[in-house]
């Protein structure tokens, strides 16, 4: 009864104090509704505001009649400003203007500036739609122009770190490696609203990985209908009679309740690599020198289907499914010269490998809004099936020829379920959730000696490995809006892991159980529109890839093999950051990372045998600074500059490996876009990236650099997009380094066919405002199934 009286009094008082109002509809330049647009009414020092709904409608109660200033703000940019007169309940419809508004105050002209960078409490935001240079390209190319991110057709990293996870609309992609790159190439930058770089992920996300997260936020659907696009691209290599090709198609449909997105892709990627690995004794005259050539023809096809159904304004259900099939062919040969106390030996070897991989990813979700303040409950289920079957032939040539055949068969199974609750209490927004993950990996490695065309099973080199892992996680966090200038966020995540690895060959097993807490904390301060400060902290974990836990010996010749380590443990890192953004386009981040029990693959020599094994063997401290700047003062030029300078110090606690010398290093990117016409549909691109000498673990890496140039052309009202690049013009992109050990050093060099001519053509048809089903589902564990050693 009391609640009804209070509600009645509230309505009466609201009617009395706000007897006037203004309402209306905001539309864009095509007279379509403009949702999520701020309408601001100002009189003296009093301000009233509202956000338009999905139909572009707004209503603002006012205290009194009179003259007001009405302003429209869209995506942080002021588009409209005018003086209006309100008397009683007024109605006014507004159409957005294209250019920012210019206001004259005492002879001074002020122009609303588009925000390019934004510092949020727990992430750096790059507003892609505000960058002219980032339009008319695919998502991989857009990531390459994002501060702190390096993206190529091979990998994506943050500030030089590898194995970064990528999300779409706050939902992690169920893809990794080449499958991830192929999918991102189906997304056009014109459909991307912003890219968020999360270097210290909050408690909501998995604690796995020390490289952080990248969240690609797509533009919301603004109209009903459908659209599609077809893409084709190819690379031609200098001095090589072959090309790499890729073709794909996407389709989007948006109805009042149902949204569907589908994509198909097929490709044939050629890769060639020449390398040497020179092991030289430091306490004796022994050496092991190997020169190799590898050729890889990565053939793949895949597709995906996503669907969302809006049951009503509060309930949304959906699914994601992705399939990928690849059957790469790998060929190579090497020549080794071995010298030790027993004399000199020349060894030649070659291999011809074929692999068939089928990967299925499926996810389903259900979202329900539980109140009008934005609170939401999300339920998600994920499944990943990864089947691989290889046929690998090897020949080892000394005075005789030893021929062998290996048939590795592996099956990854990953299942997970989670519940996430977002609950808002005024200025405090909370998040909490539970997650369970089950990982199962059955690997069978069959090894045969080939004698007189007969396959004879070698039981000493044949092995079956079973791996089972279960993860339990719970988290809670809160975001505090202290006032208009201060924000704070804190969270705590707990993860408990139980794993077991069984090797049938040597009848050994390893059982490990551990539970860890992962705290996160953030605070940000924004004194005005031109300055933003932040301080972040997070604790992370890096778990080994499944293949690195398998102890079987993978022979590439009678004298060389690689092996896993069932006792390999995860590493942990603590990360601190201080960030500053000036004028929304200049970003500085100071950081400190401390990693404990990190792991890497090391080389071991025993007589005339050499093998590599993954071990935990070092701790590392790294202190650095990231600087990002976007220059757009000139109408004909937009430049993006990124610099990462750091000091690293490594300590090895394993006597089989010596830490690389401590020291300073840096890497930087410079991308220039020269607009050759007024409409900015013809662009000349010129850029470079470079890594100065650096160190990690027991490895010292030499400097590396690459220069590219190209043209970008948008035709037919940006429906036909043509990009032409020349990558690595000077042919300087290569990997070179030294590994340090107590009795020898290993110098290695690797050079691929990085100089190439790349051409891509994309044609879009249908309604460009339709985005289809844009929601992705979190599935962090999927990336552990792949990856290198």
From TrEMBL:
The organism of origin for this protein: Chryseobacterium herbae
Keywords recorded for this protein, A-Z: Cell outer membrane, Membrane, Receptor, Signal, Transmembrane, Transmembrane beta strand, Transport
Signal peptide residue numbers: 1-19
UniProt cross-references to InterPro entries, sorted A to Z: Beta-barrel_TonB_sf, CarboxyPept-like_regulatory, OMP_b-brl_3, TonB-dep_rcpt-like
Residues annotated as domain Outer membrane protein beta-barrel: 369-763
Pfam families (alphabetical): CarbopepD_reg_2 (PF13715), OMP_b-brl_3 (PF14905)
Topology in the lipid bilayer: Multi-pass membrane protein
Record's protein name: TonB-dependent receptor
Compartment list: Cell outer membrane
């Amino acid at each position: 009864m009391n609640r009804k009286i209070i509600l009645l009094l509230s309505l009466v008082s609201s009617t009395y104090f706000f007897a006037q109002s203004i309402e209306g509809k905001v539309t864009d330049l095509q007279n379509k509704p403009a949702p999520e647009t701020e309408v601001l009414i100002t009189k003296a020092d009093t301000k009233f505001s509202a956000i338009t709904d999905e139909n572009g409608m707004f209503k603002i109660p006012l205290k009194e009649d009179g003259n007001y200033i009405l302003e429209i703000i869209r995506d942080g940019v002021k588009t409209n400003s005018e003086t209006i007169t309100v008397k009683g309940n007024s109605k006014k419809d507004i159409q957005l203007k294209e250019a920012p508004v210019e206001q004259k105050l005492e002879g001074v002209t002020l122009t609303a500036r588009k925000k390019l960078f934004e510092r949020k409490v727990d992430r750096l935001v790059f507003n892609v739609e505000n960058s002219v240079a980032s339009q008319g390209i695919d998502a991989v190319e857009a990531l390459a122009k994002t501060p702190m991110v390096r993206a190529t057709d091979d990998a994506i990293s943050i500030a030089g770190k590898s194995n970064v996870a990528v999300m779409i609309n706050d939902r992690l992609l169920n893809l990794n490696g080449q499958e991830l790159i192929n999918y991102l190439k189906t997304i056009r930058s014109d459909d991307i609203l912003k890219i968020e770089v999360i270097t210290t992920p909050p408690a909501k996300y998995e604690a796995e990985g020390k490289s952080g997260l990248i969240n690609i936020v797509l533009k919301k659907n603004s109209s009903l209908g459908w659209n599609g696009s077809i893409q084709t691209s190819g690379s031609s290599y200098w001095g090589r009679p072959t090309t790499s090709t890729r073709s794909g198609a996407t389709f989007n449909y948006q109805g009042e309740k149902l949204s569907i997105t589908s994509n198909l892709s097929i490709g044939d990627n050629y890769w060639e690599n020449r390398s040497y690995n020179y092991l030289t004794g430091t306490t004796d005259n022994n050496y092991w020198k190997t020169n190799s050539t590898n050729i890889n023809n990565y053939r793949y096809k895949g597709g995906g289907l996503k669907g969302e159904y809006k049951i009503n304004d509060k309930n949304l259900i959906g699914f994601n499914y992705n399939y990928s099939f690849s059957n790469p062919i790998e060929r190579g040969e090497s020549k080794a010269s071995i010298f030790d106390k027993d004399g000199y030996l020349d060894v030649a070897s070659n291999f011809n490998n074929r692999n068939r991989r089928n990967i299925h990813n499926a996810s389903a979700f259900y979202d329900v809004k539980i109140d009008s303040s934005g609170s939401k409950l999300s339920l998600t289920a994920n499944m990943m099936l990864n089947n691989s079957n290889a046929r690998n032939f090897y020949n080892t040539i000394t005075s005789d020829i030893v021929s062998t055949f290996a048939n590795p068969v592996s099956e990854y199974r990953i299942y997970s379920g989670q519940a996430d609750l977002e609950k808002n209490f005024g200025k405090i927004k909370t998040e909490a959730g539970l997650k369970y993950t089950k990982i199962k990996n059955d690997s069978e490695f069959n090894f045969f000696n080939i004698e007189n065309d007969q396959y004879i099973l070698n039981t000493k080199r044949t092995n079956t490995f079973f791996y089972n892992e279960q993860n339990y996680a719970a988290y809670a966090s809160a975001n505090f809006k202290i006032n208009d200038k201060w924000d704070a966020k804190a969270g705590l995540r707990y993860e408990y892991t139980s794993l077991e690895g069984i090797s049938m060959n040597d009848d050994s097993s390893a059982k490990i159980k551990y539970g860890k807490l992962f705290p996160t904390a953030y605070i940000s301060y924004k004194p005005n529109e031109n300055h933003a400060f932040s301080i972040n902290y997070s604790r992370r974990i890096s778990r080994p890839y499944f293949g690195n836990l398998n102890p079987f010996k993978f022979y590439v010749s009678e004298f060389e093999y690689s092996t896993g380590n069932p006792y390999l443990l995860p590493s942990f890192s603590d990360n601190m950051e201080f960030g500053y953004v000036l004028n929304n386009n200049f970003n500085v981040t100071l950081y400190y990372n401390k990693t404990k029990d990190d792991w890497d693959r090391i080389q071991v020599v025993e007589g005339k045998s050499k093998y590599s094994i993954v071990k935990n063997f070092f701790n590392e401290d790294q202190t650095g600074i990231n600087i990002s700047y976007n220059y757009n003062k000139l109408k004909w030029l937009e430049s993006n500059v990124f610099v990462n300078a750091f000091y690293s110090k490594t300590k090895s606690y394993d006597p089989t490996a010596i830490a690389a010398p401590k020291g300073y290093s840096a890497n930087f990117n410079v991308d220039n876009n020269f607009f050759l016409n007024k409409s900015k549909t013809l662009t000349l691109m010129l850029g470079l990236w470079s890594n100065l000498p650096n160190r990690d673990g027991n490895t010292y890496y030499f400097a590396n650099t690459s220069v590219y140039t190209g043209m970008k052309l948008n035709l037919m009202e940006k429906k036909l997009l043509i990009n032409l690049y020349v990558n690595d013009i000077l042919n300087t992109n290569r990997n070179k380094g030294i590994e340090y050990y107590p009795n020898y050093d290993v110098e290695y060099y690797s050079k691929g066919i990085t100089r190439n001519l790349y051409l891509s053509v994309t044609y879009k048809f249908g309604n460009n405002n339709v985005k289809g089903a844009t929601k992705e589902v979190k599935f962090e564990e999927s990336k552990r199934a792949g990856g290198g050693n």
